[in-house]
Amino acid sequence: MSNKQFDVVVIGAGPGGYIAAIRAAQLGFSVACIDEWSNEAGKPAPGGTCTNVGCIPSKALLQSSEHFEHASHGFKEHGINVEGLSFDVAQMLKRKNTVVKQNNDGILFLFKKNKVTFFHGRGAFAGAAGAEGYPIAISGPTTETITGKQIIVATGSNPRALPGAPFDEKLILSNTGALAIEEVPANLGVIGAGVIGLELGSVWRRLGSKVTVLEGLPTFLGAVDEQIAKEAQKLLTKQGLSINLSCKITKVEAGKNNVTVEYTDAKGEAQKATFDKLIVSIGRTANTIGLGADKVGLAVDERGMITVDHDCKTNLPNVWAIGDVVRGPMLAHKAEEEGVAVAERIAGQHGHTNFNTLPSVIYTHPEIASVGKTEQQLKAEGVAYKAGTFPFLANGRARALGDTNGMVKFLADATTDEILGVHIVGPMASELISEAVVAMEFKASAEDIARICHAHPSLSEATKEAALAVDKRTLNF
C-alpha cells in the first residue's frame, strides 16, 4: 500500500469531476482523480452517468432513431424514395457504445495531457484530515490510500426507483436499461414525463413502440414556460406519445415477460396497463452512500445531498462538492461550471457560476430549450414584463428544412427591456439557446438582439424576430 500525496483529489470523473481535475492541473496543482466506472471489458470508463448511461448515449440513439424517422416519413416530400427500409437495433446499440467509448478514451487522454493522475476505483474518506490532508481510500480495481490537501466530491447521482419496484434492467428499467433494449418493445410504459422519459420514450416510439407516458403532476413539464410546454405536449402527442397527467401509481408488478402497472388517472379512476418494458424516470438521488461522510463529519442532508454554500464549500475545511451531489439542477454543464469555479477558488481566484443563466434542453424532436425566467415565474414574482414570440412556420430556413413546428419566445423587463428569459421549442433549439445565454450574461436588452444582424436564411433569424416581437415589430410575421 502506497501513500501518494496530492494538492487536489477529485472523487468522481463525471462532467463535474473530470473538468475540475483538469482545471486544477492547469492552475499548477498536483491532481488525482478517482472514478469507479468500468466498461464491459472491465477497463476504466470515466465520464460518469452523462457519458456512460446518460447524455451521450441517449443522443446517439436519438440521432439514429431520428434518421430512421426522416427516412420513413420525411424523405418522400423531398423527392427521395426509399424502398425496403429497415433498421438494425444491434447496430444502433453498437454505434452508441462506440460513441461512449470515444468519450471515455477522450477523458483519459485529457488526464494524461494535463498530468492528472487517474485511479480506477471507488474513493471514500478514510478518516479525519492529518498534516498532509485527508486520507482517501480507493477500493475496487485499484486498492490504495492517497492523501489530498483539497478534496472535491463529484460523485453524481443514481436513478430513483419506485417503492417496491426495484430496477432489474430487464423489465423495470432505469436510464441504464432503457439505453440497452435489444428488441423494440411492442408496448413501452414510461413513468415520469421528464427529460429522460420523453427522450427515451421518443427513441423507441420512432422505432415502432406504442409508448404510454404516466406523469404524476397535473401539468406537463411544469418547470418549462407554460406556453412552450403546451406547444411541446401538442407536438409530441401528435407524433404518437400517449401522455397522461395526474397519474398516481399504486402498484407495479413484474411478471415473467411483462410489467403490470396499476394507477389512478386524472379523474381518480383506477386503471391497469401491461407493458413489455417499463422505464421509470422519476428523478435521481445523490450518490453519497459509501463516501465515508460519517468518518469525517461531512454534512449531508435528509435527501443524501452534501450541504454546501454558494461557493460549493462544505462544512469541512478544504472539502468542496459539486454537480448532482449538491443543490441546484442536475445538469452536466452546471457540474462543469462548478468544477471550474471550485478549482479557481482553490487557486485564490474568483470562480463564477450563475444559476440564472444555466440553459436547459430536452432533446426530443422538436427540441425544447430555455434559459432564465418563465412567464409563470415572472407573474408569481410580480415582475412587469413584455413578451414576444415568433413561429418557425414563418422562418425561411425552417421551411427549407421542412421543420417548421414550434416557436421562439422572449421575455424582457417592461421598463429596462433587459432579457429575463428565452424559451424555444423547435429545430436545433439546443444550439439557438446559446445566443440567449450570452446576451443575458452581458445584461443585454431585447432591443440589442433585435438590432444584431443575423445570417439569412438561418434558424437564428427566429431569435431576432422574437426579440423584435417584444416591441410588436416583427418583420416576417
TrEMBL record:
One of its GO terms (cellular component) is cytoplasm. Binds 1 FAD per subunit. The keyword Protein biosynthesis does not apply. It comes from the Bacteria. It holds the Pfam family Pyr_redox_2. FAD binds at residues 59, 123, 155-157, 324, 330-333. It is an enzyme of class 1 (oxidoreductase). Disulfide bonds join 50-55. Its EC number is 1.8.1.4. Residues 359-467 form the Pyridine nucleotide-disulphide oxidoreductase dimerisation domain. The active site is at residue 456. GO terms for biological process: 2-oxoglutarate metabolic process. Its cofactor is FAD. GO terms for molecular function: dihydrolipoyl dehydrogenase (NADH) activity; flavin adenine dinucleotide binding. It catalyses: N(6)-[(R)-dihydrolipoyl]-L-lysyl-[protein] + NAD(+) = N(6)-[(R)-lipoyl]-L-lysyl-[protein] + NADH + H(+). PANTHER family: DIHYDROLIPOYL DEHYDROGENASE (PTHR22912:SF224), DISULFIDE OXIDOREDUCTASE (PTHR22912). The active site is a redox-active disulfide bond. This is Dihydrolipoyl dehydrogenase. It comes from Massilia eburnea. The lineage of its organism: Bacteria, Pseudomonadati, Pseudomonadota, Betaproteobacteria, Burkholderiales. The gene is lpdA.
